[in-house]
Amino acid sequence: MVGFVLVVGCGGAYYLYQQLDGNISKVDVGVENDAVSDGPVNLLIIGTDARSGKGNSGYGDSGSVGHADTTILMHISKDRSNATALSIPRDLITDIPNCPTKQKDGSKKVIPGEHGVRFNTSLGQEGRDPGCTWRTVEKLTGLKINHFMMADFNAVKELSEAVDGVEVCAAKDIDDPKSHLKLKAGRHTVKGEQALAFVRTRHAIGFGSDLDRIKMQQQFLSSLIRKLKSSAFSSPGKLYDVSQAATRALTVDTGIGTAGKLLDFGNDLKKVDIDKVTFATVPVLDNPNDKATVILDQAKADPLFAMVRADHTLAKHKKSKGKSSGPAKKAPPELVRVDVTNGGGPIGSAQETVDWLQNNKGAKLSTNAGNAPAKLAATRLEYAPNQADQAATLADWMGLPKSALKKSSQDAGDRVPMKLVLGKDFKAPGTPIEAPTETPDGVQNVNADDKNVCAK
């Protein structure tokens, strides 16, 4: 689905997509964002191990309710100059929050959250839908998700067939009886069942872990993106085949649940160049209490998540193709009106911040609004379009990154305050909430344009 998203808006697609509306399955996750955003975009991509669907009975775990077998959080920068795709290990031990789900009869049911369980149970288990995985990823990373796409085993098989195969590379002979993949060392073009075997293989490579399987998936997806973005797929016939294959295997949120919305979404994201797409794996450590699972490597994960939240690229080339909009106009201190709540900072942070704003910055219209209703990983400033000058002033004082600024769609009344929610990343008023600009050491990553990646 990653490659499909980046190519879906190419020329001539519109009339094709009008014919494909009926292929698209939708799930109402209780959040419906606009298809196109003027800010960064976070797309959750889920590959489920459900055995439903033609030809899938021999795959996955027998009787599986359809867990989150493969999960990628794709972050596309605000200026669309780069994208980062974070693979989340399925065996990561994490917390799953309470999850409201919509039932077939239209009623809502809240699935209770769980502490210290496998990440992949965020989908399927206890009736959890993709919205539960959505909320779990938000809690884990501190990134707000815009949309999700979910696919089953057929997506790999049918898409790889539609593009006449995907080139992959093996550094050694591979013979995995579990996935039924047999490859000699060297380069190969795989499609259909063999393509699915490639992305499912882990026992015959590396240490035989899910982390090694993730590397296979990243190699495959990188090659698929390169092929989908090539000029070879500009013909209407080929584009139609790819579109049919993708949408037949696709389930999305209601925000992109029509052909028109999906086309708009793809048109927005296709601006990203291949050499600015980076795949990375969320850093983990072996779980000392269970060898079959892993735990978050907090020392590496925290700066990685902060880097993505701040909209910093993992790509080696840092020059942005986006146009600078210039410095924003700033309001004088006496006009900055804001309610401050504590959503994860140290105890007393809201009052400490208000005292600092009033006494050090002259913002007498700042108010302590107590504790936020929910904890946030990242500090957030919510403001209306007609409060942009106030937001610019406050962001400058607080050292807020662009990713912390959330502009609403409608203007606010004269006496309506902005809302500053202090997240877990908040240290002290006046201390910039900084994020690294270089990929943390030890974080596995690969550029999608790297043609020399081989399975080892």
From TrEMBL:
Pfam families: LytR_C, LytR_cpsA_psr
Domain Cell envelope-related transcriptional attenuator: start-end pairs: 67-229
Region ranges (Disordered): 97-124, 426-456
InterPro entries documented for this protein: LytR/CpsA/Psr_C (IPR027381), LytR/CpsA/Psr_CW_biosynth (IPR050922), LytR_CpsA_psr (IPR004474)
Positions of the LytR/CpsA/Psr regulator C-terminal domain: 336-426
Residue stretches of biased makeup (Basic and acidic residues): 102-117
Signal peptide (from-to): none
Record-stated family: Belongs to the LytR/CpsA/Psr (LCP) family.
Protein name (record): LytR family transcriptional regulator
Organism of origin: Streptomyces inhibens
